[in-house]
Automatic annotation (TrEMBL), chain A:
Catalyzes the conversion of 2 pyruvate molecules into acetolactate in the first common step of the biosynthetic pathway of the branched-amino acids such as leucine, isoleucine, and valine. This is Acetolactate synthase small subunit. SUPFAM superfamilies: ACT-like. Pathway: Amino-acid biosynthesis; L-isoleucine biosynthesis; L-isoleucine from 2-oxobutanoate: step 1/4; Amino-acid biosynthesis; L-valine biosynthesis; L-valine from pyruvate: step 1/4. One of its GO terms (molecular function) is acetolactate synthase activity. It comes from Sulfitobacter dubius. Pfam families: ACT_AHAS_ss (PF22629), ALS_ss_C (PF10369). Belongs to the acetolactate synthase small subunit family. InterPro entries: Acetalactate_synth_ssu (IPR004789), Acetolactate_synth/TF_NikR_C (IPR027271), Acetolactate_synth_ssu_C (IPR019455), ACT-like_dom_sf (IPR045865), ACT_dom (IPR002912), AHAS_ACT (IPR039557), AHAS_small-like_ACT (IPR054480). Its EC number is 2.2.1.6. The keyword Transferase applies. Transmembrane segments: none annotated. Keywords: Amino-acid biosynthesis, Branched-chain amino acid biosynthesis, Transferase.
Amino acid sequence: MAALKIKKGATSHSAYNLRPNFSDVVEKHTLAVLVENEPGALARVIGLFSGRGYNIDSLTVAEVDHTGHLSRITIVTSGTPQVIEQIKAQVGRIVPVHEVHDLTVEGPSVERELAMFKVICKGEHRVEALRLADIFRVNVVDSTLESFVFEITGAPEKIDAFAELMRPLGLADVARTGVAALARGV
Amino acid sequence: MKRQMTGAKMIVQALIDQGVDTVFGYPGGAVLPIYDEVFQQNSIKHVLVRHEQGAVHAAEGYARSTGKPGVVLVTSGPGATNAVTGLTDALLDSIPLVVLTGQVPTFMIGSDAFQEADTVGITRPCTKHNWLVKETDNLGATLHEAFHVATHGRPGPVLIDIPKDVQFATGSYESPKPSTSRYQPQVKGNMEEITELVAAMETAKRPIFYTGGGVINSGPAASQLLRELVDATGFPVTSTLMGLGAYPASGDKWLGMLGMHGLYEANMAMHDCDLMINIGARFDDRITGVIDSFSPKSTKAHIDIDPSSINKVIRIDIPIVGDVGHVLEDLLKVWKSRGRKTNSEGLAKWWSKIEEWRAKDCLKFTQSGKVIKPQHALTRLEALTKDHDRYITTEVGQHQMWAAQYLGFEEPNRWMTSGGLGTMGYGFPASIGVQMAHPESLVINVAGEASWLMNMQEMGTAMQFGLPVKQFILNNERLGMVRQWQELLHGERYSQSWSEALPDFVKLAEAFGAKGIICSDPDDLDDAIMEMINYDGPVIFDCLVEKHENCFPMIPSGKAHNEMLLPGDHETQGVIDAKGSVLV
Ligand SMILES: Cc1ncc(C[n+]2csc(CCOP(=O)(O)OP(=O)(O)O)c2C)c(N)n1
Ligand SMILES: [Mg+2]
């Protein structure tokens, strides 16, 4: 082997980074997939994940370019580096997929999620819920004498933290959009 | 120029414009308008199969033997679901197919209409891509795109689902233009990586080319370049089941097939090499055996048009994404420009090691007594047919592996077998597709009796279209490969692996109006084979062979390449341990 003097590791000039280091550590990655908004496009992506046994931690999709009919699918997935590379390659070869970006490795990115919480509470709990909502800069989008619907936008961890605080106060229902993400800068 | 026509007419017109000469299909309610157009033209031959699975395999045989996409036309519902096995087979073996299915009219979709099935849903995971066309105006462009997608990048089957109202309606059609498709996979390899591979080739002491179906899919020029590369470098070459014929079996650098039933010298060389150059193969589990001990000492290069094949199962040191033909051309150029260097001292030692392995003569067998050994039958078939303009298809089982071992392929596109899916019932319809494409050639399906029965209805097709396909059945009255595994793994408890109640194959042939030949005596074998070759029409050849012959060499599941079982290893029981036994 030494005689062959072959350098190992990633090559930046390659169209595909096909030299991952194969570690066994499971990593969480956020992928942005630009796909033609044709019927079945989302089913193709989801079917690929279930068919090949990959994880989906969260998935959001919406058309982002109405004239070009392009949808953006943001997928948070987890796996070893080898599996993550494989996921990107597999998604990339779906015919209507235009681009696959791994926001986790391509540089800094921002991730946001929107969630709504219904909290049913009275008296002291009501006051406390409102006080915490204020600290988290959460909007109240509906209220009755016995309930609130809070709207919160933020990183998934922030939403998790708020959910934990609401649980003892009477958390009754949760709706979350899943993560939307964009690379920072230009 | 745009022309107005009905959807049904558009389909036939698009096929003609795409250069299609043969369609394999079966009619039904949802494709009647298309069949009406088929009736009114003479440019395209329609081969009426007897089961839609047969249509898809026939199209695969046509595609693999010509390099052109195979075309299939079937009806909605059961027509489409019957095509699913063939689509999956073509997907796993990267065979370009365009499959057209009828669908209930758009306004009835979703109502559980008669013969409605969610065809695009069912076939999404078993096609490279598929489309449901809801507007006649989009039909022409979709048909052209379908041919483009099927044949570009890694080839594969595509499907277009066409509701009946879309076939009747009128829309505008345009002839194909030089491709405007967005789908343009990378064909040129990265020059730095190619140069890196050349540098590794210059110093390697124990190199090996490991080639696969990608060389054949890349076209005859790729096989030509491979030959040039192998002969110029003097490196040994082995191939997967799918790649046989890319390098000629008579070439002196040829080590034979590798893998689970590959040759001893090929597998040992893979295990001990220091530079493995994978060209258009995919490290299938039939090839690698247990991953942890797969070729532990080698630097691995991988040339593949599909980036997802690289690093999927085996860690690659030099990845090259591109079409085999393009990459080999550049590789040769760079290697020549740097002075055609190889490590001749290392190579000489490597070859003497390989000669030691070759001396084991791992395919040796002795034909003695009054029962025909399957290996003997194939050796005689090879001797008597190798000088013919010959195409071979196979079914799946022991006979398939023996055919790969004992028949020699000098040219690409001469060998059609179900590799990835291992589909029993593939070979007979595939032979029909091959014969349609090559009417004057000798087309032989090497079959097992059990596999052959899975699509035997296609005898009707062979007779109707006057296709002189030869069905060479190695009849061991067993599901031989299953029996072999039961011997190795399940204490010789032969659960359901006997072919009981077999038909009289001679009478069966005669019932269809074909010729039947039965042979059980080794002394009669040559004459019987000659009779088969010389008969101008379909033949069913019932070759009664040794019933409990095992197929060796074999890498037992869960073992490494250097732990092969060889003929004469009679201690076969218990060779597969608990870890290996869960593998298939
Ligand atoms: C459609 C299908 N069903 C089941 C199998 C599993 N299988 C693999 S080989 C084999 C036996 C094949 O018997 P035969 O065609 O007589 O060939 P032999 O092994 O005896 O040469 C079976 C059942 C398969 N490959 N394909
Ligand atoms: Mg058999």
